[in-house]
Amino acid sequence: MFIDVNIARCDGDVLKHARRLGFKLVACSGVEQAGFNGVAVVRRVDAATGDVAELRSILAEHGGSAYIAVTPLSLRVARWSAHDERIDTIVMTGGNIEFFDKKQFSAMKTYGKPLEVSVGDFLRLDDVKGGQFYRRVNLALRMGIRLVTGSGARWWWELYHPYVIVSMLSSMYDVPRQTALASITAAPLQLMASKKILEHIYS
Questions:
Q1: Cys-Cys crosslink for 27: which of 42, 43, 107, 196, Cβ 3.0 to 4.6 Å?
Q2: The organism sits in which domain of life (predicted)?
Q3: Which domain holds residue 152?
Q4: Is the Cβ–Cβ distance between 158 and 152 less than 8 Å?
Q5: CA angle, 92 as apex, 54 and 58 as ends, to 5°?
Q6: Three-state SS letters, 99-147
């Protein structure tokens, strides 16, 4: 089952194209339409913050019934996010790479927290940021962190075929193909099933 965990807006065009590409489950920040002809939709909550109090408020409101992805904008939030079981993934972008060091990945490993990356984000990185991203992704994998990948799509044409995503991760970041494939299949499915998020899908 192919899964895209990061779509900004699920309108009819996006869901139709996701179906054509072979996706069966998507997580959307903006749910404008329920699932379309075999594509199930999970509500996604994006928490991009540098304040722990704000993050706690978001979790109190949304924890349990949505896929919650935290983009830490401070070191304190990065460290704190690794420990909270209501958080599904911690998102690394070109803007917060500095918070993802060996200590951060060690905490994520201890508490079973996956690392999420976005195709739309890493395709925009310059050479310097791309090199930093490469090193962090491979450090995470060496330390046994699960990788989860989403498209970051805002429009239907920003969706990618699953095997294109696998190829990009493999060629650009030396992610083993099986690991890259698992990042859009088994890893997100296991994550959602373990937290019973699949009970809250729109089918």
A1: 42
A2: Archaea
A3: 2-200
A4: yes
A5: 20
A6: HCCHHHHHHHHHCCCCEEEEHHHHCCCCHHHHHHHHHHHHHHHHCCCCE
- Whole-angstrom Cα Rg for the chain: 16
Give pLDDT tens digits along the chain (203 positions).
Answer: 999 999 998 888 999 999 999 999 999 987 755 566 788 888 899 999 999 999 999 999 887 778 999 999 999 999 999 999 999 999 999 999 999 999 999 999 999 999 999 999 999 999 999 999 999 999 999 999 999 999 999 999 999 999 999 999 999 999 999 999 999 999 999 888 866 666 656 55
Model-level pTM? Answer: 0.93
CATH of the domain at 110: 3.20.20.140
Please give the structure tokens belonging to residue 131. Answer: 């090199």
